[in-house]
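Hey L., structure's done. Input below.
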Amino acid sequence: MTTGVLFFTGQFIMAQKKANDSIKEKTIDEVVVTGYQKKSKDEVTSAITVVSGKSLSNFSSSTMGTNALQGKAAGVDIAALNGKPGGGSMINVRGLGNITTTVGASNPLFVIDGFIVGNDQRAQDVFNSINPNDYENISVLKDAAAAAIYGSQGANGVIVLTTKSGKSGKPVITLSSKIGFSEKIKDINFSMMNAAEKIDYEKKMKALGVAGYQTWTDTDMNAALAQDHNWQKDILRTSAIESYQVGIRGGNEKSKYTFSLGYDSDNGIVRNIHAYKRYTGRMKYEANPSERLSFGASMGINYSMSQEIRDRNNAQNPFRAMYSYNPYEAVYNADGSYNPTKQGFPVLEALKNNPENINSLIFDGNIFAQYKILEGLTFKSQLGGYFNNIRRTNKIFRGSYLDSVLGIGGEVREQNQNRFRYTNSNTLNYVKSFGNHNFDLLGLVEYTEFKNDFISGTGRNFALPTISEGSNTATPFAIAGYNELYRTFSYGAFLTYDFAKKYILTASIRQDKDSRFGKNNTLSEPFWSLSGAWNLTNEDFLKGNDIVSLFKLRASIGTRGYNNIDLNLNNILMSGGGYGNYPSGVPNNNYGNPDLKWEITKSQNYGAEFGFLKNRIRGTVDYFIDQKKDFILSIPNLSSEGGAYSRSVNAGDLKNKGLEISLNADIIKTKDFVWSLRTNTSLMSYKLNKLRDGESERIVGSINMLREGEEPFSFYLVRSAGINPNNGNEIYYTKNGGTTEIYNSNDAVLIEGKSPLPKMWIY
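Output:
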């Protein structure tokens, strides 16, 4: 609901330098993080987009890294989940990830400095907890050749973040700040009625005999016209956005360090709340005490506070309310109290007296040690994890309007959640060259564990009217809680061969074991990839060419798995409760499936990279095919278990095809000034080839359908046939093609070729 209007940025860098120091320009190979390794650009055979941290922090007003990434990488579709400050994103790398409407189900895998954070919405929260000013760069791994090494976590792509490291030399202190504002986007194709227009409309509807409209007397009308105002201006405001960070980087040949502290604030466009505040800190240290041994650590902390609006599709939602309230109804009554209006709810009063707050603490960190056993053979062990505490508080103050409606004497609900995940990765890397023949073999063993506990308590009827804490409630109302746990164990290998960096071949294989799947399928099938590239730039016939500075052809094929699923879809669980004064236990609504297994994606990619005039003009073109099978569907109304139960099964397959094009050009490039233009576009097509056996179509929600042979989530609607000019009634098509003025949801049909999935996006 908001759009950034204006943003000012500033940066000050201070470094200690000798008077006679000069700045020397160094030419180095561009390094790309491909997974568990770093490769030079020449050695990459897969579809990887690298985005610099500078372009994310300096040229974006967002404090969320995923939102800042929007539009920066071809084939990556990012949309904010909502308009609230601090909110996350819906991310699709190369189109729809799978057939589910669960928030975060299509998330890519997030990796921070080699630590695998996860591929669920919780992992995105950790990723977004890092201040974009701490980003060195982001690599987006899109095809199987790049993502298959991550096995069951990489089906929807991988986003690899590398944070800033220290550099040899005198300490460099950086101060940066951003200030700006945002406001609601303007209404498109319509404008709201003022008081006179709304009263005239109501009088005409009354004359037509439409129920629900009052009779307007001259006295009432004159009084109402005097109250004319715009509810959008009363409920909304222009937000103030601030962002500040201070950092220091330095080091020498033996060790390097970086520290940073940051503060972000966005009070939001809704009155009576402060939408978002965030405090961040980060530290990174790397050391090389000997030629054989190196080690390092990085840690980050994030504490955020957000005040929420009531995000319901009724008058309790301020964005719904400002369109529902009449312009002739005042904000306040004559006695100074808030006017509930004809909608029956004063939203501005509720924002003050029914507060909802979320406080979140995230700590992430990882340590590594690397030892060179002998020439070319290196062992590395890394341990990374995060802890996330979320405390949510909902209050209904005693005496508030909602309290008077409910008659509960006030209410407070406290929720506390702790999430903890850690991963231990161990790799053995052997690198050897024989003349122009170069080999790189990596072996991997990895273990992950995730724990989540939740508790919630609600109390009502405050004993003392001015205290709204849980200990002041006289009536316990509800309590809930649970614990969750899953584990994964993986092993794999990755091989790279190149001949003089002209011809490059890569191969990977990995197998995972995951406790979230059925006991008969905890071990996945092997995930694999094969890829090759021909770097024509290094051929003799292009060396020294003043026109073509980069030209590479590449192709890949492979498989990836998907394990971003809810816990206990594989188990039959019981829930405890009460029936009157007696305890009771019943099976959960989800009936566990012990045969549940991974969704599998088989991918093909064919691409080219090119550059002209010393890479002043450069770009990429990629064509891909993703074939997804055995995707997980929840099947409701199991006949053998009764209508209240559902079960998750593997069913059907989906094909995504697409074309990605990116182009960058340095229009002006001098020592002191660079002006660049960039654009990227993606074209997508989808086809749902199959649902589960015995089912060819399914209605999802109320307006979408899954049907074999069609785009997933195609719209399923009653078609409009226009307006009857004789009486102003809307005309609808019936299912068999006739017309009627009576709306009937049973007349809904699938609208072929129309779905909410984008077929093209351009940035």
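Residues 681 and 762 are 4 Å apart (CA to CA). Residues 696-757 form one domain.

-- N.
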